[in-house]
Known about the structure:
Layout: E1 2-8, H1 11-26, E2 33-40, H2 48-58, E3 63-68, E4 72-74, E5 77-78, E6 83-90, E7 94-101, H3 107-120, E8 124-132, H4 139-145, E9 153-158, E10 170-172, E11 176-177, E12 180-187, E13 191-198, E14 201-214, E15 218-222, H5 227-235, H6 243-247, E16 252-256, E17 259-263, E18 265-268, E19 274-276, E20 285-291, H7 293-310, E21 314-320, H8 321-327, H9 331-335, E22 344-349, E23 352-355, E24 361-364, E25 368-375, H10 394-425, H11 435-452, E26 456-463, H12 466-473, H13 475-491, E27 499-504, E28 507-513, H14 517-534, E29 545-551, H15 558-575, E30 581-583
Parallel strand pairs: 2-3, 8-9, 21-22, 29-30
Antiparallel strand pairs: 1-6, 2-6, 3-10, 4-5, 4-22, 7-12, 8-12, 9-23, 10-11, 13-25, 14-15, 14-20, 15-19, 16-17, 16-20, 18-19, 21-25, 23-24, 26-28, 26-29, 27-28
Amino acid sequence: MKQFPFAINTIKELQDCVEQVREESRQMPALSSVLVSVFMDTSKVQMLTDIQKGVQAVFPEAQIIGAVSSGELVNGRLLDQGVVVNFTFFEKAAVRVFAYDFQERKSNTAGRDLLSILQADKEAAAVEVISAGFHLDINPFFKQLSASRRKIVFFGGLADDGSLGKNGLVFTHKEQIRHGVVVAVFSGKDLHVQAKSSFGWKPLGRTMTVTRMDGDFCLQELDGRPPLEVFEKYLGIRNTESFLVEALTFPFYFERHGTTLARHPRRCRDDGSMMFGADFRVGEQVRLAYGDPGEIIDNAMSLQEKMASFKPEAIFVVSCVARWMLLGSDTEKELAISKHLASSAGFYAYGEFMRNENGEIMVSNMTLVTIGMREGLSLGRQSNVVPPRPKLNQHRTLMTRLVHFIETTSQELEESNRKLKHLAQIDRLTGLFNRGETEANLRELLKRAQKLNEPLSVLMMDVDDFKVINDSYGHAVGDDTLKKIANILQMNTRRGSDVPGRWGGDEFFVVLPGSGIERARIIAERVGRLINEQAVLEDGSMVTTSIGVVTAASDDTPDTLFKRADGALYEAKQIRGKNNVVVH
């Protein structure tokens, strides 16, 4: 396997490149397949037909795949309005190219068709997907393909010409598509593929919940408010002509199925909602994120170390355009880290495609994806030398220091917020949940128990003659009595499952999810007995309690359950003469 990437600007340069690789191909012991990847600036699109003809005149069997893109990559270098033509020669593996126009065939149908091809090809090792089309509905396509064998690597990205609201262009040697995908399927029992991704963005500020969407790509509300308000309030970014440039490097950051994802806005509507190139789901919790240049370089170093051990013969690269915008003149320092490993080519995307450990094919932003390929074993190849960490330009070094400051202060703020939240939930005297948090837990646990048809019981408890204890022994003794009772409740309920709380004054309330009436009765009787034994007053007098026990019915609400527990407590205290457990 050999790869030869070129940067060209004219058809004459293309002809020279084709002639050079023809001579190189003649030196190979065997040639099973040829893939030519083409990525071009929108200003060069008039060259496309001539490029296709020029390649196939010399390599008629060549499969061509490519796109108009916002940035072209060749051997760790970023082109300025150029064309990348990348020749990949295989000695044993096969490459097949397909095109799916979503205006002629629905996304779901196209995915199902490609899935059948992959299921029939037992040697399929990797699939490259390049898409074009503003807000292309690619999720159904990927949902179908996620059912393919887990070992198949998926990579690629959303390419377009950078003009908001306009479709880009993807193509093969036969077709040109402005609303769909082109696909390359790599097959071979001796073909080895490794995919690695690098992130580098960190969460910033508070967590927000997606509360309203218009389709998959239009985020209408976060916590009930338009997302533009978040950008205006925290970043000072308003809905102007420069919105995309200003907002691109501040994506929303979240996790889905254990995978960290990011979404950068593509456009802001007049009502404050935002259009994205990848999907959100109602209920997902997101935060703003910021890029750390130092972290990005460190992640790229780690990525190439892993790729070095794989020892690739060819590298394909897809990187988010936001990384370019953030790193600026330091962009090539990230890209050049891997150039000593093997020849590489790729493009900058508005969405990167990758597969997680669960087999789900996902769209992300802000990511650098590197795919290494080789034919056969890596035995006998020399290990590649890891280059030194590149130095960032001075202003980005300053940015790294500011990022570190933001990260540290954010961590301190999060810790303070955790402590404040804890204080808001906990009764300070006893350390149990306070009434508000106990009620909130009761609502959630009752709803869950009824949905799953599981039992749930509650205890409501009152200290007998507590006013007498306070009046006779003093409030300090009364407080100590409540602490002892709280400790007994904590020691005799399941940590992380049951919810013992202080209802107020000398009243306690315990929620027992998963517990039927018999277990609840046993716990209540044990707690009452232990209070008699352990919460002894200084003159030897015994402290007693009255406890009401009920199990939730299928039609109970928190209010009706509380009233029934209160009724059982009343019977234990007023009718049966205190120091009793009454089960209703």
